[in-house]
């Protein structure tokens, strides 16, 4: 099984690079932070209680904001903190949005996180969750980070740990995003084994109440708010099989009191089905994305990081709904060569009020895949794309324009998109 994980995660697909933006005022650093260079992956030692001897790697962007958010990015089996740093776009997104990224790293031979022992599944019980919480505490104290904006995300073993962290420390984490994982407690063993074949094969099923009770039992007596959860899974996952996706949905909808019936269902990209529970919009209590025909390495099928940040609410858009323009116009042109193209997109606010924070929606012609972009963050790379403003061009005054662009590969159709929406409002095209 570990051989399969090595093959699947040996190389993560290249992801869109973030633009370099003007830096906001930097957060004050304590003496402990003085030894951590900005914009460099750095190992931190002596960060606190660490019963399983994890390593802590830290990325602090040069443009870190005052009271920054903290994102814990948890690696897959056979991986490491540096591999997660190099294989995902969270550091470049931190450059854009000013949050801090913690990359925990396993030192045991399997390089898998402990999501199975009784110690790991109980608050303060020991093992990996205790060490990860110590890393978070160190960052909160050292960088005066915001304790209400601490988040976790992970892939495979890291997704399982994301489930565990949200269950064991609901008072620490505000939300999580789990890619190809299993429910909290599904991998539990009592014989010291790290692997649970029944869970991995998707044969462990429980009622929503039973799954929810496992989470609540990790921190008995806790009555505070519970973290929101975003779940991702490929239908052809042959390592942690697809039925685990449905069991995760059962668990977290029960924990959050969201009900089993989706409030909304849509298709944000070709082959994706997104269901939201307990609310609509980008920050519903539970959001679940199923990727049709995709295997375990689903993170290679698009720039997921920007969507994670949107769910967390740390993408610069703020907690509320985006302003609706009273009018907008978009002009799009392409310049193509044999297998690629460059697109220029000019957005004009034709309304009478300023737009503070925008997202431009459009659908790429079939066969086109974005490989690079500027002036905005683009996600996903194919199909129905959302371009989200950069920090420096977030405000569009009446009659003001902003030009963004991207490079894309194509399979013969090099046309520009034909229709656009700005914050959900249809724009005229020219």
From TrEMBL:
<dbReference type="InterPro" id="IPR010126">
    <property type="entry name" value="Esterase_phb"/>
</dbReference>
<protein>
    <submittedName>
        <fullName>Esterase</fullName>
    </submittedName>
</protein>
<dbReference type="InterPro" id="IPR012291">
    <property type="entry name" value="CBM2_carb-bd_dom_sf"/>
</dbReference>
<dbReference type="Pfam" id="PF10503">
    <property type="entry name" value="Esterase_PHB"/>
</dbReference>
<dbReference type="InterPro" id="IPR001919">
    <property type="entry name" value="CBD2"/>
</dbReference>
<feature type="domain" description="CBM2">
    <location>
        <begin position="321"/>
        <end position="430"/>
    </location>
</feature>
<keyword id="KW-0378">Hydrolase</keyword>
<dbReference type="Pfam" id="PF00553">
    <property type="entry name" value="CBM_2"/>
</dbReference>
<keyword id="KW-0624">Polysaccharide degradation</keyword>
<keyword id="KW-0732">Signal</keyword>
<dbReference type="InterPro" id="IPR008965">
    <property type="entry name" value="CBM2/CBM3_carb-bd_dom_sf"/>
</dbReference>
<dbReference type="InterPro" id="IPR029058">
    <property type="entry name" value="AB_hydrolase_fold"/>
</dbReference>
<dbReference type="InterPro" id="IPR050955">
    <property type="entry name" value="Plant_Biomass_Hydrol_Est"/>
</dbReference>
<feature type="region of interest" description="Disordered">
    <location>
        <begin position="258"/>
        <end position="278"/>
    </location>
</feature>
<feature type="signal peptide">
    <location>
        <begin position="1"/>
        <end position="28"/>
    </location>
</feature>
<keyword id="KW-0119">Carbohydrate metabolism</keyword>
């Amino acid at each position: 099984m570990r051989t399969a994980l090595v093959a699947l995660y040996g190389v993560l697909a290249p992801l869109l690079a973030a633009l370099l933006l003007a830096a906001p005022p930097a957060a004050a650093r304590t003496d402990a932070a003085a030894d951590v260079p900005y914009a460099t992956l750095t190992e931190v030692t002596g960060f606190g209680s660490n019963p399983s001897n994890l390593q802590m790697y830290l990325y602090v962007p040069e443009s870190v904001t005052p009271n920054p958010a903290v994102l814990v990015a948890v690696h897959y089996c056979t991986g490491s903190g540096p591999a997660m740093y190099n294989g995902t776009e969270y550091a470049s997104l931190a450059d854009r949005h000013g949050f801090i990224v913690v990359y925990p790293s396993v030192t045991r031979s399997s390089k898998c996180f402990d999501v199975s022992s009784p110690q790991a599944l109980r608050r303060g019980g020991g093992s990996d969750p205790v060490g990860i919480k110590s890393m978070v505490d160190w960052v909160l104290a050292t960088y005066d980070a915001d304790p209400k904006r601490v988040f976790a995300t992970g892939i495979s073993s890291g997704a399982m740990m994301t489930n565990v962290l949200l269950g064991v420390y609901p008072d620490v984490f505000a939300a999580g995003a789990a890619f190809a994982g299993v429910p909290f407690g599904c991998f539990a063993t009592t014989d010291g084994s790290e692997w649970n074949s029944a869970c991995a094969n998707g044969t462990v099923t429980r009622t929503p109440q039973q799954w929810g009770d496992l989470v609540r039992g990790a921190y008995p007596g806790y009555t505070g708010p519970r973290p929101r959860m975003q779940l991702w899974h490929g239908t052809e996952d042959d390592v942690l099989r697809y039925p685990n996706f449905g069991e995760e949905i059962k668990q977290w909808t029960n924990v959050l009191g969201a009900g089993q019936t989706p409030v909304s269902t849509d298709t944000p990209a070709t082959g994706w089905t997104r269901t939201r529970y307990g609310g609509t919009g980008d920050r519903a209590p539970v959001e679940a994305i199923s990727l049709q025909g995709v295997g375990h390495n689903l993170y290679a099928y698009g720039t997921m990081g920007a969507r994670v940040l949107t769910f967390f609410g740390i993408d610069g858009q703020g907690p509320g709904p985006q302003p609706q323009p009273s009018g907008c116009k978009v002009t799009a042109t392409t310049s193509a060569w044999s297998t690629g193209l460059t697109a220029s997109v000019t957005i004009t606010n034709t309304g009478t009020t300023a737009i503070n924070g925008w997202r431009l929606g459009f659908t790429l012609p079939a066969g086109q895949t974005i490989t690079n972009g500027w002036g905005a963050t683009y996600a996903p790379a194919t199909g129905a794309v959302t371009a989200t403003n950069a920090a420096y061009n977030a405000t569009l005054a009446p009659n003001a324009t902003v030009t963004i662009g991207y490079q894309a590969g194509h399979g013969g159709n090099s046309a520009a998109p034909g229709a656009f929406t700005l914050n959900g409002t249809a724009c005229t095209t020219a």
